[in-house]
Amino acid sequence: MDRINASVDFDRRLYAEDIRASAAHADMLVRQGIITAADGAEISRGLALVLAEIEGDRFTFERALEDIHMNVEARLAELIGAPAGRLHTARSRNDQVATDFRLWVRAQIDTLDAALCELQSALIDRAEEHAATIMPGFTHLQSAQPVTFGHHLLAYVEMVGRDRGRLRDARVRLNECPLGAAALAGTSFPIDRAATAQALGFDRPMANSIDAVADRDFALEFLSAAAIAAMHLSRLAEELVIWSSAQFRFIRLSDAYSTGSSIMPQKRNPDAAELVRAKAGRIIGALIALLVVMKGLALAYGKDLQEDKEPTFDAADSLALAVAATTGMIRDLTVDAAAMRAAAASGFATATDLADWLVRTLGLPFRRAHEITARIVSRAEAKGCALDALPLAEMQAEEPGITAAVFEVLTVERSVASRTSLGGTAPQRVRDAVRAARARLV
Ligand code: ARG
Q: Of these residues, 7, 44, 88, 140, which one is catalytic?
């Protein structure tokens, strides 16, 4: 029973939140005349001692005492005696754990937000540096149209920005205080829930005592935002793996974020990127685990809810690591601009520019221009040359109206420079986007 029932092995992580919430509760009990000022003072003094013991590694956690709440309270009783027994007036472990856990998740959101901001800043710096560095843009992982490396990196700045927005939104809904809901029905003592809510930095007390102890949607929102962020990081990680491969050589990851092979001396493995890619698995798993724990659970508290913590802790730790590793990789990586440009120039990546030229200069309908371009690409393919190296006569055989002026749009530089539409990849647009992204960064 102890082994299945006890949670202290993992919920000890909530010790600081538990003590903080207890101190706020005790202060409120004094102000409301529910306990004496003398008892309240003893409780505060004792809680500070407990905190110091835990932080100084001088605290013995007892599994027999089940969870962090009972461990703290039992030690408080050893330290201050009788007044400790008054702390649990007008509360229950049910509202206590809901409060502690909200405080913990809220702190994680804030830390994560700062870390994601750092990642954006790293991406923006590299994007500025590579605003005009040409690489192939892909669809279906096939070379599609040339883009700049800076533009590609800025795509992730946008994604991370929305990840931060989701976390912020979750924080707003999370920030109500369950304390004072007691076991589930509220209490007959004249407590001041607004006071404890305020002392703990919540916007207000939760309105319904049953909801306050029964729901964990705040953790689910955190996990869903975390899962989406992890998914984004895993896409970037996968690209780092691909780009750093010997077949691509677009980038080189720093030694700090690569490992050698114990048997193949030539290898530089992108382990950190692979692990970031994989962390998404356990973070998404945490979301699913808690959703399944919660579904069909009758109100109010059930011990099932104790299973909310481990997946949430693990997801928060995993995501923090993944963000830090990604930031490090982005800051450190070196770019092989020549390899990127060569790849961008292969695969007829300026075919769309040729079709657009036929539309713009000869007034052809786009569908018709598309067919002609496809045939010109086939000719280049047969000759084994790039589009801008195909003789004019070959092009004119498909469309007599084509003139030498067409060659102006067939280089990757011209192609990229022409994509000046809002949000497009033209280096000038990318520089504007860098400036705008930096201005938004807080
Ligand atoms: N360890 C418990 C949890 O994490 C604390 C609440 C226990 N409440 C109770 N009525 N047994 O959920």
A: 140
